[in-house]
Amino acid sequence: MGIAKSDLECTAERGEPNAMVTVNLRMSLKKLLSISFLVVVGSLLVVIQGGCSQPAAVTYLSKDDQSSSTPKADTQKDAHTKVDQGTAWSIDQYGRAVRRYSARYDLDWRLVLAVMKRESRFSPKAVSNKGAYGLMQIMPSTQQELAEKLGVDNLQTPINNIRAGTFHLWSLYQAFDKADDENRIKLTLAAYNAGLNRILDAQDVATYLGDDPNDWEAVRATLPLLSKRYSTLHRRIWESGRPRAGYFRDWRQTQAYVDTIMSYYTEYQLALK
Predict the structure, then answer these.
(1) Domain 76-271, what fold?
(2) Of 157, 173, 155, nearest in space to 112 by CA
(3) Per-residue pLDDT reduced to its tens digit, 73-89
(4) What residues does each domain of the chain span?
(5) Candidate list 119, 182, 217, 239, residue with the active-site label
């Protein structure tokens, strides 16, 4: 008995497509599609991961690059933004000299800066109607005296003018060594504006009236009493019958001068270190 032929074999003999081959092809195709799908998905995952997040090392490098390419803030220039443009410009131009001479004469450089602002508005060639010159507005007679003390010929250059003006402030400051620091500064500023002898006269009047001659408010109140209309009072205080520095009419200017510089000084103390 012969072996019975399967339907597939019979079909093959009839010339029809081999069903087994067809099945195998379909299975191979499915495997190929599955493998391709996995490859594509894997590739997409790599692309997605690479595009949405950077490795830690790359992130650090990026931050370092950014920080190194960004200029560091200049603390001194940051401070400049807290003051007016004229002050900022003056600090850039003359700040080193102001700090140097202020340190030499043991004064706060911000006080010297405040005097410069009031005296000349930071103009190195400023000239008053009385002949005071430069950033610190030094009077001609005072210039000659300071030039001899400092051994400097030309006090009209900005740096020498700053040096002489700072030294002059310091010299006046020494005259009020019995006052506390705040009153001492105010008395010094008043003397810088009106002259030392004028303020000494005002102190004499304050003492005569029983007020504290080392208190600026007491001296401030006596400045108007130095005018000629109070000559009767003057005869009681001085043998000559008049203030040693002469009669004084510009007392309002001196009062305002001290107030203005102290307001600048307070501003600079808060804004500049």
Answers:
(1) Lysozyme (1.10.530)
(2) 173
(3) 344 555 556 899 999 99
(4) 7-68, 76-271
(5) 119
